[in-house]
Amino acid sequence: MSDHTPVRVPHILHVEDNPGDVHLVREALSRAGLSFDLTVARTGEEALEALREAGSGGRRRPDLALLDLNLPGMSGHEVLDAIRRDPVFAMLPVVVLSSSDREIDIEASYRHGANSYVIKPLDVDTFIDRVVSIHRFWFTTSTLPSQT
User: Fold this and answer.
1) Is the per-residue pLDDT at 4 higher than 70?
2) What is the DSSP string of 69-122?
3) pLDDT in tens, 118-136
4) Which of 56, 79, 111, 134 is deepest in the core (most CB within 10 A)?
5) What is the predicted pLDDT for the residue at 144?
6) Does residue 17 contact residue 68 with C-beta atoms inside 8 Å?
């Protein structure tokens, strides 16, 4: 990449019904000085609608999804299944970001196609560190598939 190539700002779809956790994710990325464009979906249905709009060109496609498991309506696992069945978004990296440390939830998430499972820590500073680590891993360390 040359010095004149514009750096693409990562777009993250955050599927989370807890406004406090949404605020913490935004705050973490902002405090760390990381570039991001964040779309928030409060339910699984909203998340799938956002993806449908992105797939049809009506909205920017996400580069990464942060997915809570405990959502009103559809569960996070159901959302993950729907994403993996969609040929347009089947390769979308999905990080489950959940307060559950139950082995059944962790195993089910990977079975349903999660790329990673991160347990939300109770400590705010640790939560912020984890979110920053997720961003840095997916947008600095990893190479994501092209969206073309």
Assistant:
1) no
2) S--SSS-HHHHHHHHHH-TTTTT--EEEEES---HHHHHHHHHTT-SEEEEPPS
3) 999 999 999 999 999 999 9
4) 79
5) 82
6) yes
CA distance 68 to 95: 9
Say how far apart CA 117 and CA 144 lie, in whole Å: 18
pTM: 0.91
> Domain holding 19: CATH number?
3.40.50.2300
Domain total of the chain: 1
Query: H or E element: which one contains 40?
Result: strand 37-41
Q: Determine, yes or no, domain membership for 3.
A: no
22: CB partners within 8 A, 6+ apart: 14, 16, 40
Q: What is the pLDDT of residue 1?
A: 42
Enter the tokens of residue 43.
Answer: 């339910």
Residue in 85, 76, 91, 66 with CA at minimum distance from that of residue 43: 76
% of the chain surpassing 90 pLDDT? 78
In a domain, 98, yes or no: yes
| Cα 141 to Cα 15: distance, rounded to the nearest angstrom | 23
